Structure formats: structure tokens, C-alpha cells
Amino acid sequence: MRLFFALPLPDEALDALEAAGRSFIAADINMADARAAAAFGRARWSPRANLHLTLAFLGEYDEAGLAAALAAGEEAFGHGAPARVSGLALKLEGWGAFPRLGAATILWAGLGRSPELLAITSRLRAALERAGLRYDRSPFKPHLTLARFSRPADLRGLPSDAVPGVGFRVRDAILYRSVLGGGPPRYEEMGAWRL
Ligand code: 2AM
């Protein structure tokens, strides 16, 4: 099974991200400059239920790997982890594209700097390493994937203020299983920890 750790988003963040998607589409349609025009005609938008903040992508594992990942989650987020009164405070901030704006395959919304987010991600990644679990070690670039493009799209010229600066709180960290098929992946919760 394909595993990853992520933070699910509350409704106020999901509403803001859906509004951002509508702003992008409206701007794209209205653009006098044809450079980015029609880019969104080919976009695959993340369904609301699939929007999340990935902390670590583990990839394919068997049942033993799942048990080890659950134990690592417990070590990072369970008993003994720093207690918080009301979750982790985050804020939407800006947007960008991977690998670059002029030839984007992923359009993402960004987050304001959060030392706490970096700290919980480091805790998790350290626990995965102690358990000998492999995961994608690319540097952590916190982002929320809004849309994917199978052919690189030129997104230059879209409004810089499309993503509203909405603050929100995340209550849980989740170990998800990603089930691929036709269309968007389906994410199933395999473990959850209160932040
Ligand atoms: P993305 O949304 O930025 O593509 C499940 O695939 C989740 O894990 C997605 O949120 C995806 O991020 C993320 N992820 C991170 N690294 C990945 C990788 N190497 N392969 C696939 N998904 C990855």
C-alpha cells in the first residue's frame, strides 16, 4: 500500500482554497495575454476531500511497514510529543508552481512560515529514520497542491493575490493510504493523532 503522513485541513482553509481555484479560472479566462490562456482547461483540480498538507511521503509498504509507520507516528505525535492546547496554527500565503511558473505541472497554495510546522515535520522524519523506514527525503517545501497539469502550463501573469491569507488550525496528523485508480486518488485514514 502507498503511505504518506499529512495534515488534513479544516473547512475554512478548504473554502479559501476553493475560492482561490475560482479566482485562477476567472483570471485565466479574462487574461488579455494569451500566454496562460486555456492553461486551466487542461488542469486536474484536487477534489476538496483530497486537499491536505503532506509531511512525508513513504511510498509502497506491506503490513509490517504499516505497523512500523504507525509506531513512528506514535513516537512523533503520540504520548511524549509536545502538548498543544488547540492544534497547530497555520495561515495560507501565496501560491506558486513546480517545477516552475513558466512550465508548471503542479499549481500549489503556500503557507506562512511556521516554526512549529517545521518542528513537527522534523520530529516525524526523525522517527521514520530511527525506524529505518524509507521516505521521499526531498527538502520539505510546505505546499497544498491545487491542480496538476499533464502537459506543462505557463502560469505567468496570474494574480498574485488569488490565495486569501486565511488563518486556520489543524487538529490532527494522519497516516493515509493512497488508493490509485482512474481519476483522482482516494485517501484512506490508517492512523490519526491529536496535535
Ligand atoms: P503533491 O500533492 O505535492 O503531489 C500523496 O501522493 C501525497 O504525497 C500527495 O500530496 C503528494 O504531494 C505527496 N508526495 C510527496 N512526495 C511524493 C512523491 N515522491 N510521490 C508521490 N507523492 C508524493
Provide an overview of this structure:
Helix content is 26%, strand content 37%. It has helices at 11-30, 63-77, 115-130; strands at residues 2-8, 43-45, 52-60, 88-100, 103-111, 144-153, 167-170, 172-179, 186-194. Strands 2-6-5-4-7 form a five-stranded antiparallel beta sheet, covered by helices on one side. A four-stranded antiparallel beta sheet has the order 3-1-8-9. β4 (88-100) and β5 form a beta hairpin. α2 (63-77) crosses α3 (115-130). 29% of the residues are buried. The mean pLDDT is 91. The chain binds adenosine-2'-monophosphate. Adenosine-2'-monophosphate (2AM) is lined by residues 4, 54, 57, 106, 136, 145, 178. Residues 4, 54, 57, 106, 136, 145, 178 line the site of adenosine-2'-monophosphate.
Question: What topology emerges from the helices and strands here?
Answer:
Elements: E1 2-8, H1 11-30, E2 43-45, E3 52-60, H2 63-77, E4 88-100, E5 103-111, H3 115-130, E6 144-153, E7 167-170, E8 172-179, E9 186-194
Antiparallel strand pairs: 1-3, 1-8, 2-6, 4-5, 4-7, 5-6, 8-9
Bound molecules: adenosine-2'-monophosphate.
Features:
single chain, 195 residues, four-stranded antiparallel β-sheet, globular, binds adenosine-2'-monophosphate
Please sum up the structure shown:
By secondary structure, the chain is of the alpha+beta class. It is 26% helix and 37% strand. It has a five-stranded antiparallel beta sheet with strand order 2-6-5-4-7, with helices on one face.
